[in-house]
From TrEMBL:
It is found in: Cytoplasm. Its EC number is 2.7.3.9. Residues 169-256 form the HPr domain. Signal peptide: none annotated. The gene is ptsP. Residues 25-129 form the PTS EIIA type-1 domain. It is an enzyme of class 2 (transferase). Belongs to the PEP-utilizing enzyme family. It holds the Pfam family PEP-utilizers. It comes from the Bacteria. This is phosphoenolpyruvate--protein phosphotransferase. It comes from Pseudomonas ogarae (strain DSM 112162 / CECT 30235 / F113). Its cofactor is Mg(2+). It catalyses: L-histidyl-[protein] + phosphoenolpyruvate = N(pros)-phospho-L-histidyl-[protein] + pyruvate.
Amino acid sequence: MNTTQPLQLLAPLSGVLMPLDSVPDPVFSSRVVGDGICIDPTSQTLCAPLSGVIGTLQDSAHAVSVTADNGVQVLMHIGLDTVNLAGKGFTSRVTMGQRVEAGQPLIDFDADYIALHARSLLTLMLVVSGEPFSLLGDGASCIESGAPLLRVCPAEQRPVDEAQQGSVVFSKPLIVPNESGLHARPAAVFAQAAKGFDANIQLHKQQAGANAKSLVAIMALQTAKGDSVQISAAGPQAGQAIEALEHLLLSGCGETVQAPLTPAPTVTDEPSVPGRLRGVCASPGSAFGEVVQVASQVLEIEEAGGGIEVEQAALDQGLKQAMQALKALQNEAEGSVQAQIFRAHQELLEDPTLLEQAQALITEGKSAAFAWRTATEASAALFQQLGSALLAERAADLADVGQRVLKLILGVQDNAWNLPERSILVAEQLTPSQTASLDTSRIAGFVTVGGGATSHVAILARALGLPSLCGVAHPVLALDNGTRVLLDADNGELHVNPDQALVEQLQATRERQRQRHQRDLEQSAQAARTLDGHRVEVSANVGSLRDVEQAMSLGGEGVGLLRSELLYLDRAHPPGHDEQAALYGAVARTLGPERNLVVRTLDVGGDKPLAYVPMAHEANPFLGMRGIRLCLERPQLLREQFRAILACSGLARLHIMLPMVTQLAELRLARQMLDEEVRHLGLEQAPKLGIMIEVPAAALMADLFAPEVDFFSIGTNDLTQYTLAMDRDHPQLASQADSLHPSVLRLIARTVEAARAHGKWVGVCGALASEPLAVPVLLGLGVDELSVSVPLIPAIKACVREWNLSECRTLAQQALGQESAEQVRDLLGIHSSTATPATLAMEH
Ligand code: PEP
Ligand code: MG
């Protein structure tokens, strides 16, 4: 490609052209950000002025940049001071990393709203990579969107003289003080200052690094207030650069900031983070220990290869070794959730698109490492663009696998984490495979900035019994390694350098919990009966045979939810009849003919896509083709699953459960198919058929569903997200998306009432059933079965034994009348400690 070919930029908007000098904002008129043109817009959609990749897209969608293949970077900034609108009035139509064509719509904006709420609507188009340009057209002051506007003449790239670089100097960790992070204005000031030093300067945020002389690269880091960043520099003026830029960053890069946040503490300094940070409990428990910050390694990668054959061989070797390592890890963890993750990673290694992309780059003369990294990053960016939380998680998996192979190609050893006894890991985010590999003998718990309480990482943490918090504020990343912290996941708190008294208090609580756990374990084989003799079935939520075996050893009375989709995910073809039947059969045999086995049919869809079920992109996958809706669209998939489930008839008390049912017609169609399959197989007895109550419509119509089902099982995770209109994985909403909200409890009450009237049983298989605090309410509402996370079986059974059903009924009625989830929690908290003196007495 000729990188110096002149490039034409189209007008991104219709409007009146103005020179930059007349923009009433010195950051733009002085050209600190870059030279370009200003448009006073008359249209309301910002379009791409050139083809390329979206290099920056502020969360607030008021600024976006496009980088052409030849390196020309063009930044568009809609309005002045619009960062303060925090996204209001803007709707972005693209995502970071997406490839766009010239003229493609990028951002819609509401001109009236912006004109009223921001300083100005004047929109800038700036060539921030610094190439010279000339104005096209006839000199008219009005321009139509899409008309040719500027002609840019890219310059030859000057290679960096690596030999001159010298060693790299790092600043201390610095906390970004700017209210809106390093958005265009402060980023421009910072980049401008960095350009003044003869040094190669990078700005780092966690794993990501950016050329500090590039405005776009800095903006692409998407820093937020409170983020911890670090500056590195190499070259003759490295030391001076670090000193000056540290100061500049902490003073707000030209923006007024509150008293500069002090940098991260050293062991002897006072901590710059508050003494107590709040988060959301991802896995219960508490631990006292030392901080170990987890950041992934930055790998040095040469772009140019040493010959096609050599590089191809290096890639093949890296892939082979990664495959072997993943297989070994999978075998070690056989039957567990961890094993499924390692298997999924092997599938990624064999992904043909990924391999083709990497090979094509090697053929172009790139190194194996460069080719592999580019291919994995491109696919990860694609996953992220699709706007689904689950695909974004797959992007994390891809990054994870990508890094594994890269290290093997480069011969880089994994950063051995220096783990003291009782380490508390702190990370922006842990990947599922990192979590699955944690050494629980040295790690006492972990804390992450991202993630939700229902994410894979949280599920794994609970399976490992590690207390953990997610959604903790960014300053946690500035804690020094070795800082003493008290992780109180039960109360959603992380105490930094806690008082000895607090530590002792929590340790005493832990000791009581340990004793209690011991007692619960000893009694786990006994039935769960209330003090006044009411029996409740406590069964298990499982995803694998190993879970079932563990559940049995912990006193599980059956399987209330077999999440069959785990068999279907992360593979190129659906599991065949025999593979499915083998799992259901093994589970059923483990349970035996006296215990319930509730197999949930495939619950996938927009949010958990299957490679072999192509689906159109959905704007709201949680409201799209999920669960039974997808299965009825692909009846063959459901029929095959019915057949495989029916193959274990007689081995356990077989129940089939349909997820996401919303309409009676869905239940009727599925029942008809099941009946046909039962007849086809000549079975004498059909299994029980029930539905999950996880859509408010089904709860509200439970009286009409009840006569046609054998049972209901309430999926409080989805029921809560749909009732409260809060994404179950949303980190900021995690504390509000509470299943104890009275609205959710009212839907449960209604469901139980309808089931009772028709003599059907009701279980709860959502995470609410695994919360000891919720047990009396669920019993009081009349729930017959609690299907819980495997490790919590003994605790939930013990909890049932502490209550009188009559007390539970009173409490449940009171809970239904509360105004908020907090009030319900307060009510239950009071009663849990006062109404169960017998328990406390036993603990002391
Ligand atoms: C639920 O929604 O509560 C449930 C148990 O299903 P899942 O968490 O698998 O969506
Ligand atoms: Mg669900």
